């Protein structure tokens, strides 16, 4: 099978790129792993600033129709023990963000491109052929061979393609996240359904996932002693006893869904080469404090679609080099604002979690 583009990875970045390439009439195949674990909803929030981008990409209605709900602001306790109320009423042109249902949104978008998707269960191999083409072998019980001019890594933080190409990444911290779904309660002191609070050992966020559940995520650094207390959800209330409002959300119940993973800031040392590029979290991954991981994945996918189109039309060797330069600049800007945000919290600057930001 010969296509212009081979995309590997089935998340928001890979699917968005596929949809945009299809609209441009550029042929592609999207390779994805066959057995994916049932997704654990992270309940990602999109800020109002993401809405114009979705509108520009003609994706706003898909995201809105599949969202859990609109968000109109959030509360935070960061830098002092006062609760700040951030109200989106003053934002323009959109006065709301979205609590997205990523799984459902992706399922809807996949229906547009499913005839170009190929699954595999036993991994993939990359072979560089003569004439600048790349061949990817998708392994099931048999092998499916896909040939393309451009290879795209959209495998998120796994960076599965970059690993095979021996491209290294720079990891800037060791932030990890542990999340659980808990019964929804409405806090008597908070009006918005998103609340962020910093504390001695890290920070946490609680937000309403749907009508019956909240999601609570605690962020700290890998190896921090609080992590051993967060292994059992039943211990969370004790571990977070010194928090002001976070602890109030931790209702005990059976069968709590729980997930942990990396949430660090990292960037691929190269996000593009002569005939490949990386997208979304594979190119750069953001600290969830930024609330911009998905917005960035959408923006990069749009940038990648125009870059690929230009490369195919003009065969300009600098096109991918320019893409990489833009990606590295975005990441440096992000890193600076992220670190400034952490430095606004000075109450525990001598504590293990916080001292690294000073
Ligand atoms: C706890 C947490 C909370 C977050 N909250 C927010 C938020 O509120 N707002 C926000 O905007 N962002 C948030 N983010 C970030 C956001 O989830 C990511 O930035 C975004 O999902 C990245 O999309 P992606 O498509 O690049 O990667 P992913 O969503 O990781 O998708 C990658 C895809 O590639 C597949 N894949 C992986 N390895 C392979 C392989 N070897 N072969 C084939 N396929 C493979 C995966 O199965 C997956 O389908 C949060 C992240 C975390 C961890």
From TrEMBL:
One Pfam family recorded for the sequence: FAD_binding_3
Keyword tags: Oxidoreductase
InterPro entries for the chain: FAD-bd, FAD/NAD-bd_sf, Flavin-dep_Halogenase_NPB
Coiled coil: none
SUPFAM superfamilies: FAD/NAD(P)-binding domain
GO molecular function (one): oxidoreductase activity
Residue ranges of every copy of the FAD-binding domain listed in the record: 4-336
Keyword Endoplasmic reticulum (UniProt): no
Keyword Oxidoreductase part of the UniProt annotation: yes
Name of the protein: FAD dependent oxidoreductase
Organism listed in the record: Kordia algicida OT-1
């Amino acid at each position: 099978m010969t296509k212009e583009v081979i995309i590997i990875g089935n998340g928001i970045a890979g699917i968005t790129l596929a949809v945009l390439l299809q609209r441009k009439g550029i042929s592609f195949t999207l390779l994805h792993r066959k057995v994916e674990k049932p997704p654990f909803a992270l309940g990602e929030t999109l800020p109002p600033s993401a809405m114009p981008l979705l509108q520009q990409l003609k994706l706003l209605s898909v995201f809105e129709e599949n969202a859990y709900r609109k968000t109109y602001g959030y509360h935070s306790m960061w830098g002092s023990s006062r609760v700040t109320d951030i109200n989106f009423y003053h934002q323009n042109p959109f006065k709301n963000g979205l609590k997205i249902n990523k799984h459902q949104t992706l399922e809807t978008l996949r229906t547009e491109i499913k005839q170009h998707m190929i699954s595999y269960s036993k991994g993939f191999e990359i072979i560089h052929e003569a004439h600048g083409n790349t061949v990817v072998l998708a392994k099931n019980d048999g092998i499916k061979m896909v040939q393309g001019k451009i290879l795209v890594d959209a495998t998120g933080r796994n960076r599965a393609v970059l690993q095979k190409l021996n491209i290294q990444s720079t990891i800037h911290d060791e932030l990890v996240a542990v999340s659980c779904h808990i019964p929804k309660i409405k806090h008597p002191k908070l009006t918005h359904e998103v609340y962020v609070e910093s504390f001695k050992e890290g920070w946490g966020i609680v937000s309403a996932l749907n009508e019956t559940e909240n999601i609570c995520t605690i962020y700290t650094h890998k190896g921090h002693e609080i992590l051993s207390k967060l292994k059992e959800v039943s211990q969370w209330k004790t571990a977070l006893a010194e928090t002001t409002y976070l602890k109030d959300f931790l209702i005990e119940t059976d069968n709590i869904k729980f997930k942990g993973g990396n949430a660090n800031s990292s960037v691929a040392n190269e996000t593009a080469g002569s005939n490949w590029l990386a997208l979304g979290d594979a190119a750069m991954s953001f600290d969830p404090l930024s609330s911009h991981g998905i917005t960035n994945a959408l923006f990069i996918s749009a940038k990648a679609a125009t870059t690929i189109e230009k490369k195919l039309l003009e065969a300009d060797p600098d096109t991918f080099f320019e893409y990489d330069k833009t990606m590295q600049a975005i990441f440096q800007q992000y890193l600076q604002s992220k670190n400034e945000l952490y430095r606004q919290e000075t109450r525990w600057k001598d504590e293990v979690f916080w001292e690294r930001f000073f």
